Amino acid sequence: DIQMTQSPSSVSASVGDRVTITCRASQGVSSWLAWYQQRPGEAPKLLISSAFNLQSGVPSRFSGTGSGTDFALTISSLQPEDFATYFCQQADSFPITFGHGTRLE
Amino acid sequence: QVTLRESGPALVKPTQTLTLTCTFSGFSLKTSGMCVSWIRQPPGKALEWLALIDWDEEEYYSTSLKTRLTISKDTSKNQVVLTMTNVDPVDTGTYFCARTASGSAQFDHWGRGVLVTVSA
Q1: How would you write A3-22 as a 3-class SS string?
Q2: How much is the average pLDDT of B95-112?
């Protein structure tokens, strides 16, 4: 199975800050990498697919980069609604695997 | 409008079989590229992918759980069913179903989830 390692596991930040979360795959996944946001008590929401494709309706302050084994999610200027947990997920091969999450607080 | 809704028991006893149903609308599992997965999340923990069934009835399973899981679909009812045998308290968590389109295995629509507790 492909292991997905996210860092940091948690990050403290303030409104207006720029935050970057990284995700490393144990083997190459090409660009088959998705990022999700999950607020407490809610289902995850797809933010970015295929490493850098911003989903419709997702603010442009979110961006994704990377390919192969190293990926990053950047929030350019944190808004109050962005304080949540973020997960990466590889979609290159089965079994599908998720990172352990980064809590933004 | 794509929607998914999970249903199933809130409480299950250890060693029993858990059956969960995902009822969806706004798309067809007969359409090429469409897939439905089950994903779970223990309280306060990470997401864990469990199983996926695609438009061509191909099935894929978690390595660690594949001996206990069966995923199936009823296209006429727009439902996907997951069964998990021999449940244990560690199987407690929220179970989500989610859709992927274009066969990319990236989940663009999710249900709200159903909380399942395994306890005697």
Answers
A1: CEEEECCEECCCCCCCEEEE
A2: 92
